Amino acid sequence: MYSTPWCGYCRRLKGQLDRAGIPYQEIDITDDPEATKFVEGVNGGNQTVPTVRLPDGRAFTNPTLQQLTAALSATA
Length: 76
Fold this sequence. Notes:
By secondary structure, the protein is of the alpha+beta class. It has a single domain, classed as Glutaredoxin (3-Layer(aba) Sandwich), CATH 3.40.30. The protein is built from 3 helices and 4 strands, in the order βαβαββα. It has a two-stranded parallel sheet with strand order 1-2. The longest helix is centred in the first third of the chain and has 13 residues, at about 10-20. The two termini are about 20 Å apart.
C-alpha cells in the first residue's frame, strides 16, 4: 500500500487490513521517488493515497476493504 504519514484514509485502511488479518507492505511516497512516480502514473498524475497494488499488478485507489478482499479472492 502506497501512503503518507498524514493520510487519514491510509490509517483507516491499514486498521481494516490489520483487523482482517490481510498482510500488506506500506510504502511512504514522501520518501520514495519511484513509489511517487508509480502512484502518479496510476492516478492521472495525482499523488492520491492510499493506492494499493495487488500481487497481480492491478492498482486500486482509495479502495474499500470489501473491494480489496473481492479482488484478492478473485486472484487466489
